[in-house]
Design a protein that fits this description.
The chain is mainly α. It contains two helices and no strands. The chain has helices at 2-74, 77-86. It starts with a helix and ends in a 16-residue tail after the last helix. 0% of the residues are buried.
Length: 102
């Protein structure tokens, strides 16, 4: 008869062990869910930052093209001639010059 009592004690111990394992699994599941939610929020923030940086890259590429075009214009004969006429007052030999009466 002692065997039956020991068998009953083992099953209570098994129940306690099962409850402890179930509790641990539940706590881990909750922790994973909380971590998953925070990772999703962080991922959304990073996605927004990526979009913002890609826009910045496009803006800078456009700006770089404008700078290249300006550099080409500043090295052109057209700009040099315009600068010589406006700033230095130079003219071609066959140009007609009009002066205002003083």
């Amino acid at each position: 008869m002692k065997m039956a009592g020991q068998k009953k004690q083992l099953s209570m111990g098994n129940r306690l062990g099962m409850y402890a394992i179930a509790l641990i699994v539940f706590v881990m599941l909750v922790a994973f869910l909380v971590q998953s939610r925070s990772l999703r929020a962080e991922n959304a923030a990073y996605a927004a930052q990526i979009d913002e940086l890609e826009e910045g890259i496009q803006d800078e590429e456009i700006r770089a093209e404008e700078i290249d075009e300006l550099g080409d214009y500043l090295n052109s004969d057209e700009y040099i001639e315009k600068l010589a006429r406006e700033k230095l007052g130079l003219v071609y030999e066959d140009d007609v010059i009009y002066r205002a009466a003083e």
